[in-house]
Amino acid sequence: MNYHSIFFFCALSTQALALTIIGPSGAAVLNREVVGDSRTDTSVNIQAIEVRRATSQSSASQVVEADKILQIVIAANTVSDFLLNPEFQASPDFDALWSSSNPSIATVDEAGFVTWVSDGAVRIRLETIYGDYTAAIDVDTSLSSPTTTVIGYQSGSLGKAAWDATRALAIAGGDKNLFTTQDHAQGTYLRNTNNWTASLDWTGVSNWNSDGGSRKAGVAITPYHTAHAWHAGYTPQVGSTLRFVDQAHNIVNRTVVARTRVGLTDIGLVRLNEPLPTSIKVYSVLPSDWADYSPAQSLKGVIAVVFDQEEKTLAKQILNVSSQGFFGAISHSPTEAFATSSAVYPTLTEALITGDSGNPFFIVLTGEPILMGCVYSQKNLPFLSNHITEINSSLESLGPGASTVTTVDLSGFTDY
Questions:
Q1: Which of 122, 125, 185, 210 could pair covalently with 105 via S-S, beta carbons 3.0-4.6 A apart?
Q2: What pLDDT is recorded for position 123?
């Protein structure tokens, strides 16, 4: 409850919870004390106390929107009642009579409790032996807003496949560190078998490069090329060394021989001096017509795997996908969006920080990591699949023997 104390002779702005007190002449009276006979000096203090009460019961229902199963909860409507409570500071036998100007809007009892009947403005009158005073208040209904929670996906959809795959890994548990030993100076790396994504092949994620150390990530999109973020120098310079580690912990180094930006996007590409061996994973991306299989916002709620500069695999939830394929929000705490995700993700995530830009962002389909893009900021990244034509053109510009990115076949999923 909200308490608003005012002296009967102080003018206040007219709004809900605020009282405007008008004297008998119709003019506001400021700082004047009510005076009785010679034995009694009385000032009246009015409290306006908002009392919220429900007028309906909450309800819940499930609906299907594209491939998502949503739970919609409508909370109870509430109304504003008020308690206008006189406190007698000097005269306990002070006589007061409350009345309402419109009982069809609100009623008031002898204790000054104003009860909502219907929405509207009303004046509450106080009659005393010293004069009559009125208070203008608003009583209204606060309409509840429905809350929507994604609780699942339709069978056969891209959203369900992506949701099920990553959620299963998260429930199985583990920790965030990709390596138990990671010594860049000595070139010693030991993969962590307890990592929650240890069943996935992350050999194509570069864990170090000589242009900025571990901070400037890269991810293999062809045997000859890696993708990066372009801003703030996160795409390594020509002459830099990119390091990869295969499943047997062998180091594979390659040198950057060319670099380019994809149009005006934040996507940076580099060409390596020689192709990566087959022991290093090259990642596929969704095809440019991905929206035919995942309508706008249908990837909302899917748990993604996001790398950071310390080679941790973080569980994050997609909160928004724009029509341009730019993720508008990534939840740092995946318990936010799904009712069914409580208690399994907090230990698998943390906030991204400065220096994590350029690290790759994946969803998982049929046991394979699918590259979505490289982190642009703490909560956003450009979606590679919306720039496939420009990316392939840029790859060709980097030199002879250029490859094109590989796209995933989505024909087995529901086509919307």
A1: 122
A2: 87
What is 150-209 written as a DSSP string? Answer: EEEE-TT-HHHHHHHHHHHHHHH--BSBSEEEEETTTTEEEE-TTBTTTTS--TTEE-EE
* CATH, residue 251: 2.40.10.10
pLDDT on residue 30: 26
Q: In this structure, are strands 326-331 and 147-153 parallel, antiparallel, or unpaired?
A: unpaired
Domain that holds residue 330: 154-397
Residues near 38 by Cβ (< 8 Å), separated by ≥ 6? Answer: none
For tokens 């450009």, the residue is 382
Q: Are residues 133 and 268 in the same domain?
A: no
End position of a domain, from candidates 120, 142, 164? 142
pTM for this prediction: 0.70
Residue 69 domain flag:
no
C-alpha distance from residue 301 to each of 133, 166, 176 (Å)? 57, 11, 20
* Strand partners of residue 412: none
115, 142, 169 — which closes off a domain? 142
* pLDDT at residue 136 is higher than 90: no
**Model pLDDT for residues 320-367, shown as the tens digit of each residue:** 776 565 554 555 554 434 444 444 577 888 888 999 999 999 999 999
